[in-house]
């Protein structure tokens, strides 16, 4: 009986802590609602409805604020151009992120690759994927409209708290090229780098993750195109 209760508690705790949310731009809808599940690709089974709100995003890329509850997780960000359930086939994280900790991770500017032609007024969907140790992924989406009037979040609205992040760089034949993490965490280890080569090999862009401001680790992500 006691062990049953304990097991149930553990399951509840892990359910509660394993999920994440997009704080900005506005999530498509509640991925904790009945009928939704963050385990369901591509957007947690959250449907686009008349109530779906679109956040204005700058043409060159915008801010992304995540609420994370994992001890650590890999974070991928994908983009789909279009209005209704677009194909989420543009990677915004050729070097995906390893986020460690429990709290908020705000990326001030997630850049749109120069090769992607984004028009003023273009609708799109952002998909955020987190992937943990077991290999099971969680999904959430946010619908946006690109606009020349869009702006990135001000620094005071885009704070990283309790989370440190490092970009997992593509490896050159076994030698690590992980960029400096914004924390004391060291970079890629050999086991992780296989995954990075497999997943991030599609673009040669270089991403710089730097930061570590005043302990909490403000994170600046910029792309060197
Ligand atoms: C979204 O639509 C599908 C198919 O109609 C449905 O099964 C699912 O429950 C809906 N999701 C939510 C959160 O209502
Ligand atoms: C969209 O925004 C309105 C106004 O803030 C809010 O009432 C509504 O719940 C939002 N829609 C969704 C799907 O969250
Ligand atoms: C993404 O999918 C859309 C629709 O299927 C397609 O038109 C577009 O070429 C694809 N883009 C990339 C980068 O694969
Ligand atoms: C994350 O932080 C929140 C708020 O401080 C806390 O309630 C929760 O238990 C923490 N979760 C983990 C996995 O540390
Ligand atoms: C963008 O999406 C909104 C609904 O969210 C729609 O009303 C509008 O027509 C779409 N714009 C374009 C250019 O497709
Ligand atoms: C990778 O390194 C191994 C051992 O140093 C070498 O034999 C191999 O040729 C290298 N492969 C490439 C593609 O450089
Ligand atoms: C990601 O972060 C976790 C926790 O800090 C660490 O154990 C893991 O090795 C990191 N992965 C990579 C590829 O750096």
Outline of the structure:
It is found in: Cell membrane. The chain has 225 residues and is mainly beta.
Q: What do you see in this structure?
A:
By secondary structure, the protein is mostly beta strands. It has a single domain, classed as Immunoglobulin-like, CATH 2.60.40. About 10% of the residues lie in helices and about 35% in strands. The protein has 2 helices and 11 strands, in the order H-E-E-E-E-E-E-E-E-E-H-E-E. Strands 1, 2, 3, 4, 5, 6, 7, 8 and 9 form a 9-stranded mixed sheet that branches. A hairpin with a 7-residue loop joins strand 10 (about 205-210) and strand 11 (about 220-225). Mean pLDDT is about 75; it is low at about 1-15 and about 180-225. The structure holds 2-acetamido-2-deoxy-beta-D-glucopyranose (7 copies). One 2-acetamido-2-deoxy-beta-D-glucopyranose (NAG) binds near residues 87 and 90. One 2-acetamido-2-deoxy-beta-D-glucopyranose binds near residues 98, 168 and 188.
Task: Name the CATH architecture.
Answer: Sandwich
CATH-defined superfamily? Immunoglobulins
- CATH domain fold name: Immunoglobulin-like
What is the CATH class designation? Mainly Beta
Whole-number count of domains? 1
Structural class: mainly beta
Our measurement of the CA-to-CA distance between the termini, rounded to an integer number of angstroms, reads 59 Å
Instruction: Give the tally of β-strands.
Output: 11
Radius of gyration: 17 Å
Give the helix tally. 2
On the 0 to 100 scale, the average pLDDT is 76
Low-confidence stretches: 1-17, 180-225
Level of helix content? Answer: 10-25%
Can you summarize the main beta sheet?
Answer: 9 strands, mixed
